[in-house]
Write a structure and sequence with these properties.
It comes from Corynebacterium massiliense DSM 45435. Its cofactor is Zn(2+). By secondary structure, the protein is α+β, with helices and mostly antiparallel strands. The protein is built from 24 helices and 35 strands. Helix 3 packs across helix 4 (135-145), helix 8 (273-294) packs antiparallel against helix 9 and helix 8 (273-294) crosses helix 10 (329-340). The longest helix has 39 residues, at 347-385. It binds serine (SER). Residues 39-41, 90, 162, 202, 204, 230-232 line the site of serine (SER).
Length: 887
């Protein structure tokens, strides 16, 4: 049975049982504890915790959630069942059926005949586990389902108690295993062998909330408001069983990738164990990488981007170790897109973008590999010439850290060169780094706000937003929060959060900053400095009580700061125009990755790998301002998500949209976006948009910044004033400035050259003077003098040589220094006769260097150096003279 069909049967089974089918949330999740969604229940967390009421009919839901888990990345390809990306099929009951329903529903799907919509598994091959004290679950399995006692095993906290690994919902669980037969391992049930007995479904009886702690050591802090069910069936594992293949990498979605990898590398699957692991890594990571890029992740050095980078690099490296020499990602990712598209039709529109991101990373990593290989070769040669056998841990770590060289690549290459690697040293360097990173993370991580405080308001009084239509609204105070606790009244000076029945104030969302404004009731005035949403439903006004006091229940007037709103609105509409212009110029692969709109300023991040040319930038600015000039009407339409997509509205990756969405269009098809922000009514109201420039923000993403409205005007007039000033200073028309400035800079260069030549000449003419002023020190004639500032090392040499020539018949020593841009170049030259008498210029330069914090060296007849402390020069000259005296 194809994977796609397993998915459909799962969903149909639970829809028939009254569940609402909910689409998978994006892999990227807004949760400080998670990088990626790693279980089917993640998007439902607020409903389990009772922070929000489930919006599903019958309070039952089913989903097939995209999941990524990369903690076990090293297990990939080695075990038969570790995928970094997998699809978790789940059914969820919020206060409805509990253990009995969960168990019976799961059993029915697994064992019902295929002709009746089931998966047709042989019931005699199924084993189950329950939590050690869960007699209730055990008896349901035994007495109501008919699983023999001998195939029901009891396990402890570690195996049969599920939580997200962090504070949150949890509960005992019951798992269903499939016996794959004697060829896969020992008898004795899941307790004995979890390879032969493959876990396919986890039923969690989610009734509790846990506190902090590690592994199985955590405290249960209380009951959840109701008893819930969360289950997770591994689609990939069931596919592995139903398709009769050995491991998850050989199922219909991944096997074609292995085939392509064989073609690309020339190696064969199923020949060598090491190679097989590499093939499986390629298949697994190609899919995970593709799905992450699909959801908007781009490679970078931290967080999600780093995981993606690591996955892509592991593919490239594995392919090279298998024998590939060129680029491989295009074919590998292309293949996995083909296999995944039936279940994820959105892939079709994103193929080009996905490849663009992946190929940019591949190019840069191949370069890394090249320079890393050079560094490795140098290190290996040094070890060999020193007669050693081992690459040091520090070197291996540098390769890993600076060149992105995975340690097994270093090991492999060392092996080829007949060397070893100091793994203990490497690991301790890694451990140090990890400890640093951990400390760093800990410092950064912010906890959850305790949203339960707002639970009742979220459920019973979602805020009515009036701010699309008006900027001032009457409202009633439903609640007040001060210092994280509910309050009945607040007084002047307090920092508070105000909850109103309705508000015209825009809460920060979609890149647009929150409105500023005031709340007034009689003599009372509160200044609102931020507005945030909770659960997308409740507006929290963060305010300072400026005058008077306020009680819960009071009536007031909420008034948006018009100027602020006007500016933010202009910026937001301008962002839509730039987005549309960008796609017109760069094509549809330039997709939005993030944005910020505040009064007068906007920035827009998008996925694109190349730097934009000046011509492209000019084009984008022109199209944007033409759209302003066209005075297009701005329309907003409320519609279904499907309808919006049909209209071609652009949505953000990783954004979780509800079923009703708002589409903002400017100039009809010119710009259509899903957006909840505030916008101008006509495009001309945006005013001028001055595009400032673009820059890179991490690999595969770029940023455009612009001013809008009056700020664009101010920016232009400032620039104009600047040009004016320069024109005056240059005494030229503005149009002539570029030519005049470049002519001026040419002239300046020529003048500088001339000055330098003159200075040399002047010094040369002084050579005779220096010679006649020479002093006698011991057996030597000595010229020791500090030249005027600005003589560089080269000139110093010329002068010293000249003086030495003039004194060639004597035993003479010349010591010169200068002050050149804060540095002190110095030189010592000696005639042949002086050298014969034992002078070594190289040694004298070192003596001088000690006094000016400098270093230098050279031959007995000429040596040079450079110092940092010009103040020591006089002592330096004296020291050299006393050396000569002693000779
Ligand atoms: N949350 C449970 C799991 O991830 C069941 O869905 O295994």
């Amino acid at each position: 049975m194809r994977t796609h069909e397993i998915r459909e049967r799962f969903t149909q089974h639970f829809v028939n049982l009254g569940h609402e089918s909910v689409p998978s949330a994006p892999l990227t999740v807004d949760d400080p504890n998670l990088l990626f969604v790693n279980a089917g229940m993640v998007p439902f967390k607020p409903y389990f915790l009772g922070q929000q009421n489930p919006p599903f009919h019958n309070n039952l839901a089913t989903s097939i959630q995209k999941c990524v888990r990369t903690l076990d990345i090293d297990e990939v390809g080695i075990t038969t069942r570790h995928n970094t990306f997998f699809q978790m099929a789940g059914n969820f009951s919020f206060g409805q059926y509990f253990k009995q329903g969960a168990i019976k529903n799961a059993w029915a799907l697994l064992t019902n005949p295929v002709a009746e919509g089931g998966l047709g598994l042989d019931p005699d091959r199924l084993w189950v586990t329950v939590f050690e004290t869960d007699d209730e679950a055990a008896s349901i399995w035994r007495d109501e389902v008919g699983v023999p006692e001998s195939r029901i095993q009891r396990m402890g906290m570690e195996d049969n108690y599920w939580s997200m690994g962090v504070p949150g919902p949890c509960g005992p669980c019951s798992e269903i295993y499939y016996d794959r037969g004697a060829e896969y391992g020992a008898e004795g049930g899941p307790e004995a062998d979890d390879n032969r007995y493959m876990e396919i479904w986890n039923l969690v009886f989610m009734g509790y909330e846990r506190g902090a702690g590690d592994g199985k050591n955590f405290e249960i802090v209380g009951d959840l408001p109701q008893k819930n069910i969360d289950t997770g069936m591994g689609i990939e594992r069931v596919a592995c069983i139903l398709q009769g293949v050995d491991n998850v990498y050989e199922t219909d979605l991944l096997r074609p990738v292995i085939d392509v990898a064989e073609e690309l590398t020339g190696a064969k699957y199923n020949e060598k164990q090491d190679n097989d692991v590499r093939f499986r890594v390629i298949a697994d990571h190609s899919r995970t990488g593709m799905m992450l890029i699909l959801d908007g992740v781009t490679p970078s050095n931290e967080g999600r981007g780093y995981i993606l980078r690591r996955l892509l690099r592991r593919i490239i490296r594995s392919a090279r170790l298998l024998g590939a020499t060129g680029e491989t990602l295009e074919k590998l990712l292309g293949t996995v897109m083909d296999t995944m598209e039936p279940s994820y039709p959105e892939i079709a529109d994103n193929r080009e973008r996905i490849l663009r991101v992946a190929l940019a990373e591949e190019k840069s990593f191949l370069k890394t590999l090249e320079s890393g290989t050079q560094r490795f070769d140098t290190a290996a040669a040094a070890v060999e010439s020193a007669g050693g056998k081992e690459i040091s841990g520090a070197e291996a770590f540098a390769l890993h850290d600076t060149y992105g060289f995975p340690i097994d690549l270093t090991l492999e290459m060392a092996n080829e060169a007949g060397l070893e690697v100091d793994m203990a040293g490497f690991e301790s360097a890694m451990a140090d780094q990890k400890a640093r990173a951990k400390a760093d993370n800990k410092a950064k991580k912010h906890g959850h706000t305790d949203e339960s405080l707002y639970r009742q308001w979220v459920d019973e009084h979602p805020t009515v937003f009036t701010g699309y239509e008006e900027l001032t609204s009457d409202a009633k105070v439903l609640g007040l929060v001060r210092d994280g606790e509910k309050a009945n009244s607040v007084a002047a000076g307090d920092e508070v959060e105000v909850i109103l029945d309705q508000t015209p104030m825009y809460a920060e969302a979609g890149g647009q900053l929150a409105d500023r404004g005031v709340l007034r009731a009689g003599d009372t005035k509160l200044d609102v400095h931020d507005v945030q949403k909770i659960g997308k439903k409740l507006w929290i006004h963060k305010a300072t009580v400026a005058e008077g006091g306020l009680d819960v229940g009071a009536d007031l007037t909420a008034q948006v700061d018009e100027k602020w709103r006007h500016g933010a609105t202009q910026a937001h509409s301008a962002t839509h125009l730039i987005h549309a212009a960008l796609r017109e110029v760069l094509g549809p692969t330039a997709v939005q990755a993030g944005s910020l709109n505040r009064p007068g300023y906007l920035r827009f991040d998008f996925n694109y790998t190349d730097q934009l040319t000046q011509e492209q930038m000019d084009q984008i600015a022109l199209i944007t301002n033409e759209a302003v000039d066209a005075d297009w009407e701005v329309n907003t339409v409320e519609t279904s998500l499907d309808q919006a997509k049909e209209m071609g509205a652009m949505a953000l990756f990783g954004e979780n949209y509800g079923s009703r969405v708002r589409v903002v269009e400017i100039g009809g098809p010119f710009s259509r976006e899903l957006c909840g922000g505030t916008h101008v009514a006509h495009s001309s109201q945006i005013g001028p948009v001055s595009v400032l420039g673009e820059s890179s923000v991490g690999s595969g993403a770029r940023r455009i910044e612009a001013y809008s409205g009056m700020d664009a005007f101010k920016h232009y007039s400032k620039e104009a004033a600047l040009v004016d000033e320069i024109s005056k200073a240059m005494k030229a028309q503005s149009g002539d400035l570029p030519e005049r400035i470049s002519a001026l800079s040419e002239k300046l260069k020529a003048a500088e050259k001339e000055v330098a030549a003159l200075r040399k000449q002047q010094l040369a003419s002084q050579a005779g003077e220096f010679v006649s002023n020479a002093e006698t020190v011991g057996d030597f004639r000595v010229v020791a003098t500090q030249l005027p500032a600005g003589v560089n090392g080269g000139d110093l040499r010329t002068i010293a040589t000249d003086i030495r020539n003039r004194m060639r018949d004597d035993a003479a020593v010349i010591v010169l220094g200068s002050d050149n841009d804060g540095k002190l170049p110095f030189i010592v030259a000696a005639t042949d006769a002086a050298v014969e008498k034992g002078v070594k210029a190289g040694d004298l330069v070192k003596v001088f260097g000690q006094y000016v914090d400098g270093r230098g060296g050279g031959k007995p007849d000429m040596a040079q150096g450079s110092g940092a402390q010009a103040a020591g020069a006089a002592d330096g000259f004296a020291a050299v003279k006393s050396e000569l005296q002693a000779l």
